[in-house]
Design brief:
With 658 residues, the chain is mainly β. The chain has 4 domains: 154 residues, no CATH class; 136 residues, Immunoglobulin-like (Sandwich); 183 residues, no CATH class; 140 residues, Mannose-Binding Protein A, Chain A, CATH 3.10.100. The protein has 10 helices and 49 strands. The strands form 12 sheets. Strands 22, 23, 24, 25, 26, 28, 29, 30, 31 and 38 form a 10-stranded antiparallel sheet that branches. It has a 7-stranded antiparallel sheet with strand order 1-10-9-7-3-4-5, with no helix packed on it. A 6-stranded antiparallel sheet has the order 40-39-41-42-49-44. A hairpin with a 7-residue loop joins strand 9 and strand 10. The longest helix has 11 residues. The chain is elongated.
Length: 658
């Protein structure tokens, strides 16, 4: 569909004025409009009448001319006359040169009109401006023409012309940045958009690829847009289409100019990484009306719908992770060209997480696993990284990145990590910790060619000097470190670079903290429901003493023995400067229970802030009774504590001390 604009030509009975040396009578005689003169007016607000000089606009101003805009109109053998917009609000027009008119010389005339009126522009020729960086400059790239046979209306009523847009509009939107950047590097500059041709001659593209400096809106960060008008064409797969410089001074490009049609507006949503730019999606709209066209998500350009791994949230659990860093729908065959790597099983508030492998690695003893290199920069846990192809076996490919997202390579995770993954994938089997079942295996096998888990698998968690934790379909248990069991590894993703100043870790910045408020991922306190966009709740404040206090995580870490609970809580994410994640002491638990009014009030107070309520009892504290026993909360009564063997598996919820 071509975008059009209505230009109405009507007789006007206007009289020009002469210079001050002439009399009014002389002026009237000299510039009296002939009865057969053609005047111009412009209809405002019609969806058919369209834009021109507000070429970068996305609202109704697209359909308006600006005061001072000129259109060249000619007819038959008469010399062209320039009509000028005299009012933006009323869209009224008059001749730009006083006393120069178009005339009705016969009942039907052929009118020809074009915009803009610039050097070298005509009905058949146009040179694309390279500098479109201002509103005035991009307006002069909005080339439109129309040739139309029109009969003289009776009574001098208006006639209309529909100008056809000859350019295509390209909008580049910065949708986001991958996680390799520091916050102060999440910006772009020197953005350029390329037109397949440099102009139009006799209605056809002419000249070679042309670099355009676009009209920029925004500061270069997320949400900024860059708009250029380009010559339509069939596309050039070998040419640069978009180039830019990122905040780390890397020069990046999108290769391949796509097919673009006149009168359409194309929005390319980009995610910027240090090695390449991802085109996350493309929307095609009628430039005039803003209507999304059939096929407007442009699958031939944008490819299948997906989420980037770097933007994963808890809502993406179970999705298939591919080698290009894309997430595709769970239990569905991945699109052609995508290599399925694993299943998204865990995401933290800081955007880190774990991906469960689709197949087993080589079986090992736990002692062998324990000797592998530890990796601690992913998902707040300690992973044991498989060292080589022999350990990975024939089923797994080595990875250090998935698309633009850094990963740990395949590794064995801790007991609490596997239990959390299985919980997130819908397992119903819980015996000394959540383990896998048919719900978990459905994600692994359906549509992606994975192998169902079956049998006994090691975790990286040691139980004592002789034993370590393993899991099978029915339960978790410990066995000798020298036993050989299966390995179902994970990939840690989203490891954060550390700035020299350490500023990448949010600092706790609490203002008048109060019991019942939540702490956001930005380190600030909020009433639940007032969290800013992009900030997630990570803990609930449960005790305050002056500017200090205690907050509990919104979900349990699971059930585990005492020493594992200490380590798990200390590694809880998100980390904060100025705060410490820990397992609460017996006294700290009592303070939180007292502040809530009762233990029942405390354990039932998390669902209201987006978390999961606590169990009725059996929560470890960090307070030891002796070398073999520690204190745990045993009943609903405020003072009912008991001690138990540190090898007991009891509930654990991390505490943030501030």
């Amino acid at each position: 569909m071509k975008a059009t604009k209505y230009l109405s030509l009507a007789a006007l009975a206007l009289m020009g004025t002469l210079a001050s040396c002439q009399s009014d009578d002389e002026a009237a005689a000299s510039f009296a409009r002939p009865d057969n003169a053609v005047g111009v007016n412009f209809s405002v607000g019609s969806l058919q009448g369209t834009t021109r000089s507000n070429a970068a606009a996305t609202d109704d101003t697209q359909r308006q001319f600006n005061q001072g805009d000129q259109i060249s109109v000619s007819t038959n053998d008469q010399e062209a006359v320039l009509f000028q917009c005299t009012s933006t609000d009323d869209q009224t027009w008059t001749e730009a040169v006083a006393g120069k008119f178009l005339l009705w010389t016969q009942p039907m005339l052929t009118f020809s009109a074009y915009y803009p009126v610039t050097d070298g522009t005509s009905m058949t020729a146009f040179t694309l401006p390279a500098d479109q960086s201002t509103e005035a400059n991009i307006a002069l790239a909005d080339y439109m023409t129309r040739q139309q046979n029109i009969s003289r209306p009776e009574g001098g009523s208006d006639i209309q012309m529909q100008l056809e847009r000859k350019m295509a509009r390209v909008i580049v939107r910065i949708n986001g940045f991958n996680d390799q950047y520091f916050n102060n590097q999440k910006t772009v500059s020197n953005v350029r958009i390329y037109s397949e041709a440099s102009g139009i001659e006799n209605g056809n593209p002419t000249g070679s690829s042309s670099e355009i400096q676009p009209y920029a809106q925004g500061n270069g960060g997320q949400g900024s847009t860059y708009t250029a008008l380009v010559v339509p064409g069939y596309g050039d797969s070998g040419a640069d289409f978009i180039t830019l410089t990122d905040g780390a001074s890397n020069n990046l490009s999108v290769k391949g100019i796509p097919e673009l049609n006149a009168g359409n507006s194309y929005t390319f949503n980009l995610v910027v990484g240090k090695n390449r730019i991802e085109v996350a999606s493309v929307t095609v709209q009628d430039w005039t009306t803003g209507e999304t066209l059939a096929g407007g998500q442009a699958t031939e350009q944008a490819g299948p719908t997906y989420t980037l791994l770097s933007a994963a949230t808890t809502a993406d659990y179970g999705k298939v992770v591919c080698a290009d860093g894309h997430l595709h729908d769970a239990k569905t065959a991945v699109p052609a060209g995508c290599t399925a790597v694993g299943i998204l099983g865990k995401v933290t508030a800081t955007g880190q997480g774990l991906i469960l492998a689709l197949k087993n690695a080589t079986s090992q003893t736990w002692n062998t696993i324990n000797g592998w290199t530890s990796e601690t920069t992913y998902a707040g846990t300690t992973l044991k990284v498989l060292p080589d192809d022999a350990a990975r076996g024939t089923n797994l490919t080595s990875y250090t990145t998935l698309g633009e997202t850094t990963v740990s390579n395949w590794a064995v995770a801790q007991k609490s990590d596997y239990a959390e993954i299985f919980t997130n994938l819908g397992s119903t089997k819980n015996n000394r910790g959540m383990t896998y079942d048919n719900n978990v295996n459905a994600y692994i096998t359906t549509g992606v060619g994975g192998t169902a888990m079956a049998g006994t698998y090691w975790s990286a968690t040691q139980d004592d000097d002789y034993d370590a934790w393993y899991f099978e379909e029915s339960y978790w248990y410990d066995d000798y470190n020298t036993s050989t069991y299966y390995v179902r590894p994970v990939l840690g993703f989203g490891g954060q670079a550390t700035e020299e100043s350490g500023a990448s870790t949010p600092t706790l910045d609490l203002t008048s903290p109060a019991v019942g408020q939540v702490i956001g991922s930005d380190g600030k306190n909020y009433a639940y429901g007032s969290l800013p966009t992009g900030v997630t709740a990570v803990a609930k404040i449960c005790y305050v003493s002056g500017s200090n206090g205690l907050a509990l995580a919104l979900t349990d870490e699971g059930k585990m023995e005492w020493s594992t609970a200490i380590e798990t809580c200390a590694a809880h994410t998100a980390p904060f400067t100025g705060g410490t994640w820990k397992l609460a002491t017996q006294d700290e638990w009592d303070n939180m229970i007292y502040a809530a009014g009762s233990y029942i009030a405390l354990h039932d107070g998390f669902s209201s802030v987006g978390g999961t309520n606590m169990q009725s009892d059996y929560y470890w504290s960090s307070t030891e009774k002796d070398s073999n026993f520690a204190w745990y909360y045993d009943d609903l009564d405020l003072e009912d504590w008991d001690s138990g063997d540190k090898e007991y598996e009891l509930y654990v919820r991390a505490c943030l001390a501030f």
